[in-house]
Amino acid sequence: MLVLLLFLILTVLDHISAQEFKSQLTGTIVDKVHSEPIEFAVINLKGTSTAVQTDSKGYFILEVPSDVELELDVFRMDYKSFSFKIDKIAPGATKNVVLKLAQDENVLNEIVVSDYAIQDKTMIREGVTEMKFLPSASGNIESLLPHIALGTSSGTGGELSSQYNVRGGNYDENLLYINDFEIYRPQLIRSGQQEGLSFPNIDLIKDLQFSSGGFGAKFGDKMSSVFDVKYKLPSSFAASVGLSLLGTSAHLEGSFKVSKDNYRRVRFLFGARHKTTRYLLNTTSIKGEYQPDFFDFQTYITYDISKTIQLGLIGNYNLAKYKLIPESGISAKGLIDFTLRLRTDYEGQEVDEFYTQMGGISLTYLPDNKKNPTFLKWLASVYSSQENERFDLIGTYGLYEVETSLGSDGAGEDKSLLGQGIQQRFARNYLRSTVANTELKGGTEFNYSGRSLTYQFLQYGIKFQTEKINDKINEWERLDSAGFSLPTDTNYFRIRNVLKTTNNLNSNRFTAYIQDGFTFQFQNNDELQVIAGIRGNYWTLNNDFFITPRMQLIYTPKSISKTMTFKLSGGLYYQPPFYRELRNFSGQLDTNLMAQKSAQIVGGWTYDFGHSSKGKKKYKLIVEGYYKKLWDLVPYDVDNVRVRYYGANEATGYAMGLDVRLNGEFVPDAESWFNFSLLRTREAIDGVTHLKREPYKTEAKEVSDVPRPTDQLATLAIFFQDYLPQNKNFKMHMGFTLGTGLPFGIPDNNRVFRNTYRFNPYHRVDIGFSVTLYDRKWKENKPNHFLRFTKYTWLSLEVFNLLKIQNAASNNWIKDIFNVSYALPNYLTSRRINLKLKMDF
């Protein structure tokens, strides 16, 4: 990693002399009538191949020659193209412009093919510039999703995990795409402590889209969400280096011509990250020697073979090593009149290794067809992982009652011993998986004039995937309580939870979809968008075949307000098993397991209101309500971030809720997000009469359904930014998360009295204070600044878990001398201070 950083720094220094003779043109492109930002507009320096695209906020940055008059062209489908001139810009200086595009009178459609992405009004779209400042203990972009995505929470993994739950589903129910490639992740991870760096690298991201449900047929077969990430297509050289107490990062981007033809151009992105969470893990309830080591390298390269064909290559190598030599642990639970304390001394160690690699190739064809724009894209990728989980841990524990009398001399000390014993956990688990696929997708846009139907966009795709999984499990647990091994047997020495199996799985999947979108324009200028499609899926392992229809309706009452939109979407969303769903608690596979199924309906309202100083809308309010009917579910229990499936389609259920998000510039030029959700999700296992004990009652009461493991009544997530009124270079970035407790049950006995307990509410505040050390805009006023070789440099002081709240990730279940079980929490990280430096070149 240090070698890579040194290489980047030398590369940057090599470019400094060239940068001295260049300037920057920045700006925003908006709709001339509505003042809305325009995405995917192309700004081209006339007579050259230098061009950039605007992001989701209409913003662009273009490097241009200094001390010469410039002429630029602006292109955007559905808008009139135009050219404009810029006076000379001094070397190293920056000029900002605001450009207004007028719509083509003959074209009114909002759906366009550009950068091989289609605008989707049913999805939330965000840039990532502001997101880089949010304090994050994990350093992964998924930690931002609870603040910006509807109905999304981090679950029991908390701040250490990149996993997230959406509207009552678990992490396995979410789709992730990077530039149209579907991304997979390791299967054996048990805790957030083992999780390293997720695939999306924020330094490489242009923007992201997220759907919390009701998404179109062009997306895959999962029941909860779609996270669609687009990487940059750089037009000029840029780089960055990040340093903090939790790790380092570096990235390099640029483009160059490979021939005299302006259209033959290579664009490249390289990113490397290194993370260690030792500094954080030393604040958890288990003390010992932590040796986490996480590394990630990835690249995305495109080559414009011709004016109509582009080649794309993506690659990723990810290494996660986690070693723990525990020494002791202390956890407590109780109230003012009765408190328990668990003390544990450990022997042994845990060593986990997760190696993942992914490589992909794409070929995009965009024929020159202005009347009916068309695209075809072929993709092929291979994902492989090697997962090794090894631990042999012996914990000698004592369970004590704590003296809680305030006037006692021993207040807070151990009062009496309630139980003691030894717990030994052993595992040698190895998983090898390979997923290879190839896909062909395309789309054609049809333009109509002089009728209510103004636009049509037809999309289609077919995909083949083959999977190979080799799983070897050797795991057991021994529990010795008061000198007796549990479970007791006078004839044999027995141990608990013995798993010793070998599973080999080879299978193929075939999927296809067709989706058609129509835009209608009414006489009063109101607009209705109808998107309908179907998906087909076939799995050779169990010959499971299904077809699922999906539909979205988007209505914009422009006669009342051009910034108000009503949405209604839904359909059938089936999720065939991958691997973990097939494996039950004993490690055996049920290869006849069918897809989990849901019927969903989502209704929403979006409204942009208020005006900022720049003329654009100041606030955006999104409100969505939903209902999901679930059947053929595979029940599961959650331990930290580990999902343990029952391995059978034996449950039905439902999920319903309301999500509200408000974002905007509550402080001028500083965007903030407020996200609130209500959720109720329940299930019932077939053939089981579920019971529940009411407080202070001995007899159990029969109930029709029970909470699912992701049932979280309310969550609130806030990302708020502010700055000093007299100096905007000093900023504050605060992340606040509050969520009601998640349910859990007694291990190995969680069917009849299912998920009857709940964790305490999760609440956490992370705050960062950043200062801009250098900005290239200062070059004229500070020509001798010691950081003038950078474009932008900032320093941030972050405080994680500002209020020092103890949030639980999982439980230790301990029995006393009377055979009564107690759940003692395993806590997440406590307060820590982090210092972060970021330099952009």
Give a description of the structure.
The protein is mostly beta strands. 3% of the residues lie in helices and 59% in strands. It is built from 3 helices and 48 strands. A hairpin with a 4-residue loop joins strand 28 and strand 29. The longest helix is centred in the N-terminal third of the chain and has 19 residues.
Overall geometry comes to globular
What is the CATH topology classification name of the largest domain? Maltoporin, Chain A
Per CATH, the architecture of the largest domain is Beta Barrel
CATH superfamily of the largest domain: TonB-dependent receptor, beta-barrel domain
What's the topology here?
Elements: H1 2-20, E1 22-31, E2 42-45, E3 51-53, E4 59-65, E5 70-75, E6 82-86, E7 94-101, E8 113-114, E9 117-118, E10 124-127, H2 145-148, E11 152-153, E12 165-166, E13 174-178, E14 181-182, E15 205-211, E16 225-231, E17 238-244, E18 247-257, E19 265-275, H3 278-281, E20 286-304, E21 309-334, E22 339-365, E23 374-402, E24 414-447, E25 453-481, E26 484-486, E27 496-521, E28 527-539, E29 544-556, E30 564-575, E31 596-611, E32 617-633, E33 636-639, E34 642-645, E35 651-667, E36 670-685, E37 691-693, E38 700-702, E39 706-707, E40 714-724, E41 727-739, E42 743-744, E43 757-758, E44 762-775, E45 792-800, E46 808-815, E47 821-827, E48 832-840
Parallel strand pairs: 1-7, 13-16
Antiparallel strand pairs: 1-4, 2-3, 2-5, 5-6, 8-9, 10-15, 11-12, 13-14, 15-16, 17-18, 17-48, 18-19, 19-20, 20-21, 21-22, 22-23, 23-24, 24-25, 25-26, 25-27, 27-28, 28-29, 29-30, 30-31, 31-32, 32-35, 33-34, 35-36, 36-39, 36-40, 37-38, 40-41, 41-44, 42-43, 44-45, 45-48, 46-47
